[in-house]
Amino acid sequence: MQMLALTEGAFLKHLEMALLTTSGTKDFRILANKQLSGYLIALWIAENQSAKDLLNRCLPRALLDYLDSKDPPPSIPDEKDLLTVRNNLEMAENCEKDKPFAQIQDQLKSVQITLEARLDTLLQHWNLEQKLTFLQNHRVREEQQKATQRPVVLRKRRRQVKATANWKSFCYYFAQNHSRADLIWNEKTRDEFRQAIANEMRLLQHELEFVQSETEIAWNHSEFLINYNSLSDEVRIGEYYLRFLLSEENNVETATPIHRPQEFFNNIYHRFLLAQRNEMRCICLRAMAIVYERHCISIGPFSDTYYIVHMLAKCINLAERDHLIYLISKLALDKQNVRDLIAADSLPLLIDIAVLAHLHTNRAKLHAQTNVIEAPKGTIDSEESAPKEWYYNDKQGQRNGPYSFRKIKQLFCDGTLFEKSEIWAEGLDKWCYLSSVAQFRWTICCNQHSLIGQTSSIKSDENEKSKDIDLLPVALYNPTDLCSLILDTLIQMCSFFPSRDETGAIIRPLPKVKKILSEPVLLYQLVQLLLTYDPAIVQRIGTLVHLIMEDNNALSRLYLSGIFFFILMYNGSNILPIAHFLKYAHLKQAFRSTLSASELASRSVLCPMLPEANIFYLEQYGAEKYAEVFLGESQNPECIWNSDMRKHMINKIALHVADFSNRLSSNVKALYRYCPIPPIEYDQLKEELFCHFYYLRHLIDEKRFPLWPIREPVEFLRSCLSAWQNEITRKPTKMSNEQACERLGLDIKDKSSWSDPVAVRRAYFKLAQKYHPDKNPDGREQFEQINYAYEFLTSTLARASLSQEPDINRIIVIIKAQSITYKRNLKVLSPYKYAGYTQLIKTIDLESADDALFSNQKGGESGQLLISAVELCYWTLKSSPLNAEQLRRDGGLEALYKTFCRCVPMITSSCNDNSMAVKVCLHVCNCFGAAANFEACREKIAEMKALFKGICQLLKFEHLTRLSCAAADCVCSLSVCTLLQTQMFQAGIIWQLMPHLFRFDWTLDEGGVAHSEKTNQQSTLNRLARSCCEALACLAGYRPNTPDNDGVQNSLRAMLTPYICRQMQLASCSLAVNLNQSDEEKEEQEELQKEEIKKSKNNSVIENGKIVLNNGKQNTCQPNSVDDDACLADDISVTKPPIQYRNDFVLKLLNSNTFDPYLIWDNSTRAELLDFVELHRNSNDNLVRQFFVF
Fold this sequence. Notes:
Shape: flat
Low-confidence stretches: 369-380, 450-473, 797-803, 1068-1138
Mean pLDDT: 81
Strand content: under 5%
Radius of gyration: 52 Å
Distance between the termini: 139 Å
Structural class: mainly alpha
Oligomer: single chain
Helix content: 40-55%
Number of strands: 16
């Protein structure tokens, strides 16, 4: 049937019926015939290659692909399925549904057979078979049926063909319009299809009329072919239309799939080689690039890469040049093609075209401050102001020049110069023909060729022609986009050849592509593309140079190209690739700054341009974090940077390279000659002092930055000590103004010569070329002196340091920074001995002995210096016992004692907590308290008789709560020695401590109202009362590691009663005590307290009314003593006492009325005691009347 359908022409007729019958008709007969014809066609093409070949000659392949589609077509509401097709599966399912009735029939039949068998047995037994004739007739009929049955003969079944084509989907898309790279189908093509089938059927019918009826006729289907004349103008290669292929987006999901891509790519290349017109060649080149980009793995290496590069070198058409470069960019996706590109010497050719981006003047500018130093209006385009770079030889062989780029173009337009004229400029290694220089070849020469190649005459005057010459010819890409494309190609080429292998080993020899790009001429030209300031170019240059310079021996000399100047001049925000490059390269340059004190900053090539803190931030936090800071506004201890500082830096660098950057608009191959930039000074940093990661003025500002972490505190402390030493012993610079001028050959008497940066730079260039180590190996020492003289004369900071004295404010900042470092890192610094006691003690001695210490004129700076020095002394003592011993050896205790004696008399009732004398005495008390933990220091303290009088004097100023607390805490610390206890007792310390106990308000804590010492004065008085109570307990020997003092104990028993003294030495976990308890309950509570003390973690027991520790270790912490500075700094971890004493309970007893067998205490006893204390407090007799009786 399949063959008959072809030979008799039925296939053609049914094809017309199935595809060309309109679906809009309502005649069901026609619609049924249409569906039947489609079903027949689907059957006839199933497993029939002849029929499939016929369809391939009639219809596009992309349209026939819908026959193999598995997706159902979109539903058409007006079209219904009018064919009834036998469905064996459905019939089998229906039969399965009737299965229960069949089972019943089988059961009935089985019962019938059983009954007949039994009946037959019964009849034989009674001999009734002959009598029942109906049974006999039944047997006769069964025998006749068996005789008439024919044997079963197996025969070969006829092969049944199934229709697998998705004819419905094919018909649906046949009726739609398509405009794709592989299919153009519309009303015109459908009409041509209809006419071709109608003509073929008419011709076949006409032939049948002339043939006799007995003769069999077969349709010549093998030669039937349909040509679509409406598509004759389309450029088609293989099965694809290039017009649509080039217009598609490069998206894998939406792009047209390409079958047999290698064959298709070769076909396009063959058409390109045969094409004569430039338009066709460009189309083929672009199509090759698109196909290769999508299927580079399937296509593999391209064997004619060398010839593509050769075509680019000989090309004179802009559009063809751009398409060749576009193809090369896609060929670079294959590693073997990259090797061929390198072997074909394509890198210099590509870079020559890339640098033409300097001539692009119509690029978009960023919304930021321009990098260009603006010239007066009207002078930019003038011939006089244009850089003159070019020379040429005329017909007589005489050299002429220099001329600007604009002037050379004008000479070419006037006919003075020709394509074969020899020209030269810096950057060219020899005299070259004008047409061989890329800058002229792609601006005026190619335009000349395009004018010659035009078929129509151009009627224009000389002015119009000159105007056309001035403009760049129109091409596929503008110079900036073309440069970006080339840079992407170079990046792709470098990425195939990494600098390290999988194990991290450095690859040597250096990959060839990186070796070629590392050559100074090519590398400098790439680097100078940064001066285009185009975001796309700058970002790609940063990435490319980073790839080239990884593990490259030429990295150390990269700074000579000026790349660090050009990078920092960029004012865009896409600086992440730049930041990665700076992080990698800034410390690896053969560069050394002679003006930076920091080792890290002096090794960084960024030192003259960026603040030292920025360099540390880049090195510490990496490129990503640094990019955030560089683009934003930052003012913290680690970095001070803002947009104004960035603009200032850009202006300074732009001024430094202005002489060169202007030349690139005239000669794109000009090479930069390196000249060191004078250190850039920022007004925002004039008062700042930077030391090892931190600006010290911000670091010591604990209001703004209270918890700023200090990394590497040991190294930071060393840096602070070094900065302190440098500030005290400020040394003159290595070179004076006279020596620097003499070194550079400038006249010191003529100030205008050595104060003008341009004149200094000119003198430096002259000598640097003479003594540069590359040209003069013996001139390295002279070259270093020249560099230092140049930096010295161009840096105002270096010249200003000649006559400066030590700055007291800077010293104060350094000392405060050290104090904060110790305060926040006590445990980290505890193993280290402080190395700055010599300077510290000398500072304390000098300041305390100054006659003008308390004068209004000098009290600001000197007072702050003394306060900071004494505070630092305290924190060093608190950090490590090594420091206490070192301080004693260096005479630090004596210096503190003298300072204390100098300041105590200056404290009066009119002073406040911010007074200089108050702060000094507070820190001195803390120092002696910390030093008292060491026996050798206690021996020294015992010799300072006036110290105890001074402490007593400080306790009189109850309005100076912080100072009084510090004095009370100092008493606690000094009470570890019997001798010191006795001396304080004899000085009358009890008379000064006792009154503060009765200013305690126990209702403040038990009232449930939140309070703090900053906002509540009673809270500070309560704190002072607790400190004084603890001081009395330590003085009497009621605390561990404090010896018993009978004199103090007897005095306290006499004045405070034995019961209260016993409560002072007890410990309890609960501070709240119910005063209304019975006597038995109080006794039980005391017993429980004693048991708790025995089970404490320090294994302490009560002996002779005193708590003694059994672990054999000293307990240096003072219970219930709160350090003043520890309260102010929340980040200091204060060690809690292992035992909590009942100071609050004692204070509550003293300030309450109690009547029980243990204690009788009321207002009269308190008044009597206070009168007695006040009497001795104001008298010269400091001895305690031990037999005081209420």
